[in-house]
């Protein structure tokens, strides 16, 4: 692509440009959407596992605090109780950490449509440029990230402060609560806080997803010269040319099949050649070749003719001779007599009360 300033790139990126960017690893990937997915699964897993694990963990911690003064000074029992509490804490957090990591991996793969680039594992020396680093540091992307971080810090901090304030208000009463009730209250406060954060994160993730997609397209915009250069490359690409030829052939065959349905008669070899002729008695012109083919294409022509109830006449020498003529051309005088005989036969077939057969 031409190395031009972003001001000149006023055109939307072409499909080839977008595909090339994707192959290079440039895909729209929102971190906030990943965080939303992790937080959602986190709440789901926590709400299903915390009642048992959390109660057991709090039971050990309360027992440790209540019997702290009676623990022997050698520290053996204290160490055993601490290890047990740590095991309970790990069992409480392990499902959350495992599921959270799995969600990040799966969600990243979904966002990138399972794109894997081994080249991305190789260090890019060009990214070590101090000038490029300074530009990235003070760029629009980092400014947006800073604003997002500040917004999340203020909003999430306010939510957690409100929950903590409410928790401290009932702290004196909590000393008299049983372990199941204390567990239930803590879980309720935690889920309330995370659900509130989840609602805010949903708004942030939606805006970030839209911004990420918009910013990617903006960075990939092209100048008029870029588009011209790409078109020149495509014109010289053998794969593109082959694809264009294939498309032209498919369209030509579609037009021929349509012409077969409108033709007057199909003259066959009977299996290898098929030529479709159109004759209009009102027009001052010879019969015209509107479709022709050999082998597979000839079979398609016969099949299409049978569907449209177009008469099929077997005449091997005539079919081979007509096949050599250009498509959409009128037949030359040397074929007038045999073709006229066939058309007369076809007209007789269509005449009511006729006993002629094929």
UniProtKB/TrEMBL annotation:
Which ranges form a coiled coil?
none
Output the GO biological process annotations, alphabetical, semicolon-separated: protein secretion
**UniProtKB keywords:** Membrane, Transmembrane, Transmembrane helix
Name of the protein in its database record: EscU/YscU/HrcU family type III secretion system export apparatus switch protein
InterPro entries (alphabetical): T3SS_substrate_exporter (IPR006135), T3SS_substrate_exporter_C (IPR029025)
**Would the keyword Membrane turn up in this protein's UniProt record?**
yes
Q: Which residues cross the membrane?
A: 35-58, 90-110, 189-211
What protein family does this chain belong to?
Answer: Belongs to the type III secretion exporter family.
Cellular component GO terms held in the UniProt record:
plasma membrane
Region Disordered, annotated ranges: 1-27
């Amino acid at each position: 692509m031409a190395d031009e300033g972003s001001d000149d790139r006023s055109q939307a990126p072409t499909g080839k440009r977008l595909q090339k960017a994707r192959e290079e690893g440039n895909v729209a990937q929102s971190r906030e959407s990943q965080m939303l997915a992790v937080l959602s699964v986190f709440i789901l897993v926590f709400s299903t596992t915390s009642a048992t694990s959390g109660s057991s963990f709090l039971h050990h911690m309360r027992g440790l605090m209540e019997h702290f003064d009676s623990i022997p000074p050698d520290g053996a029992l204290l160490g055993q109780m601490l290890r047990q509490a740590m095991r309970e804490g790990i069992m409480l957090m392990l499902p959350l950490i495992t599921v959270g990591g799995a969600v990040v991996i799966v969600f990243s793969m979904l966002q990138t449509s399972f794109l894997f680039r081994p080249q991305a594992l190789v260090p890019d020396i060009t990214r070590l440029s101090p000038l490029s680093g300074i530009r990235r540091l003070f760029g629009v992307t980092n400014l947006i990230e800073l604003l997002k971080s500040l917004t999340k810090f203020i909003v999430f901090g306010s939510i957690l402060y409100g929950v903590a304030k409410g928790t401290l208000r009932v702290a004196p009463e909590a000393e008299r609560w049983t372990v199941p009730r204390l567990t239930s209250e803590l879980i309720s406060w935690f889920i309330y806080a995370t659900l509130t954060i989840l609602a805010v994160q949903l708004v942030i993730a939606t805006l970030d997803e839209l911004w990420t997609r918009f910013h990617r397209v903006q960075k990939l915009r092209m100048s008029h010269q870029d588009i011209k250069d790409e078109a020149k490359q495509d014109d010289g690409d053998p794969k593109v040319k082959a694809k264009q030829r294939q498309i032209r052939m498919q369209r030509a065959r579609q037009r021929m099949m349509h012409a077969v349905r409108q033709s007057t008669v199909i003259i066959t070899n009977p299996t290898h050649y098929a030529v479709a002729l159109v004759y209009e008695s009102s027009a001052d012109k010879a019969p015209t070749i509107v479709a022709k083919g050999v082998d597979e294409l000839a079979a398609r022509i016969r099949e299409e003719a049978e569907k449209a109830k177009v008469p099929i006449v077997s005449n091997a020498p005539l079919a081979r001779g007509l096949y050599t003529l250009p498509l959409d051309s009128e037949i030359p005088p040397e074929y007038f007599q045999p073709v006229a005989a066939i058309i007369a036969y076809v007209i007789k077939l269509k005449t009511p009360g006729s006993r002629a057969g094929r």
